[in-house]
Amino acid sequence: MLNQKSQESYWNGNIPWITVKDFNGKYVSTTTDSITLEGLKHSSANLTEDQDILISARGTVGKVLMVGAGYTFNQSIYCLRADRSVLVPDYLFYWLEKNVSLVKQGTHGSVFETITKDTFDHLTIDLPDIEEQKKIAHKLSMFDRKINLNEQINDNLLETCKTNLHQLINEKEYEVTQIGNLDLIVSDHVANGSFKSLKDSVKYFDEPNFAIFLRNIDLKNRLDGNLKYIDKTSYNFLKKSHLFGGEVVISNVADVGSVHRVPRLKHPMVVGNNQIFIRSKNQSMNDYLFIFFNSKWGQHAIHSITSGSAQQKFNKTDFKKLNIPIPTDNWVDNHISPFLKMTDLNKAETRLLKRIKSSLLNKYF
Q: Could you tell me which residues come within 8 angstroms of residue 126 by beta carbon, excluding any fewer than 6 positions away?
């Protein structure tokens, strides 16, 4: 096991090292960490083969991922390899995705949910003939391929925005302004009372109710499948945290500096705790701040006001004192906003594809 990174010769090699935070959708494009051949030799992990399926076994239990050959993974993950004479790997992936509740029924653990190898001994899978499995898997895979393509396009669009920002900084075509001097609303998760009253007053639901409690956005700015919903009473209680789409949300406790752009959804939304949000009447400013705080300059600014030994954090007051570059004229409208509008369209299409895929999963399984 590679439980820590004190041995530098084990890390930052050419072998992708998957952890639960890399589970976003069916496929993995990049991993946060990688290990060396030396690290692999000193771990209990093995390399994956093509179309192996990984399933998270601790903490966030039951997330599934399909990988190609040459990956490895930590001890919080199990690898499933289909006997292709009777089972199509893609079919197994979708069966697990749909029937994650059955996997969780086998979990145990007082602190974290966990699954063990024994969990899989008690699972019974619906298994049509190979040709029928292939048909079902093919139809569902078409949706995931398009979803994955949209996400790759969005990654490229964001990189283009960052490249444009880099050129702006290098050419010094900006003015330096304190955030507090901009026409912005900078707020955090403030309710009509103390944090204790917040916990006592807000009711959360796993199924759609009224408003989305917006804490579940992954590092690629995608809503995950474990959204929390609140009722109308809770939404009104959290009136200082209402979101309307386009705002910039930044984690200011623990996962400090994680930056998100709020999507426009049919449900009302509220920001979660341990986050601040920025709203400008000028959407171009929202767009610019999202790209800036995702850049190396924005991250450096955030970490310059971050402190804490046990838990990293920064406060809203210090954040509003940050000096940041602001471009002049219509620079954002030409170099940032058009690309973000394209990402919004792709994300809207992705949400629709996921809804259609979900209905097909219900039909087939």
A: 95, 365
